[in-house]
Design brief:
247 residues; alpha+beta; Immunoglobulin-like; 3 domains; three-stranded antiparallel sheet; 5 helices
Amino acid sequence: MLYCKDRYGNIQCYDIGAPSSPDVSIGSFIADPTSIVGGQPSALSWTVSDATSVSIDNGIGTVSASDNRDVTPMVTTTYTLTAQGQGGPVTAQVTVTVTGVDTDSDGLDDDWEMRYFDDLTHDGSEDFDGDGWDNATEFAAGTDPTDTDTDDDGLSDGADPGPLDPDFDNDGLSDGDEVNEYGTDPSDPDSDGDGWSDGDEVEYETDPNDANSRPAHTFHGLGGGCGAQAGMLFALVVVLIRRRRKR
């Protein structure tokens, strides 16, 4: 209520209502460092304004509005900060990535096992996805142990010369097409050694496995049809220049 007098001394009463409370807000929530070796600490720090309560999950609980806390997770962990108040609750998240921990001594990082299997019951000798590579090999190569064909090129990881690159030799053909359709070598851009890339030969409908079968064009380049087309254009320009000189 606001009271005041007019010029005659009369008291006037005005109801302007209660002042509104500001909305709760999270200024920052960070982890430093964001990647650790298991057992090492990472410092969580945060600032929150106009909150009635603040908490962080994963066993931390209620905290003050602006503070810091060391954490030592053994697996990659995402922490969620929740602030209650006017206009809330509001949340913020930060992830601490943990590497290099193998608590069950199976040759596989715990974090890697949890990411792909959600538990630590799988060992390095197992071939979970049946692609010809055991889990230890997939871990070392960076492939997905739950996907037989990590790069989706039509070849299983165990049979693929580059299981993370669908065109390992960069000849314009996927590794799967080279093996399954054309019978070419997915690790050699020119399987028959005739100077034409396998991709060019397929494009010009010659046999990429026969050195005597090649496109008729004189000018070409490995690495797809663009080289051959550029060579043809160059040849045409040369012919036109020669004809003009004869005149």
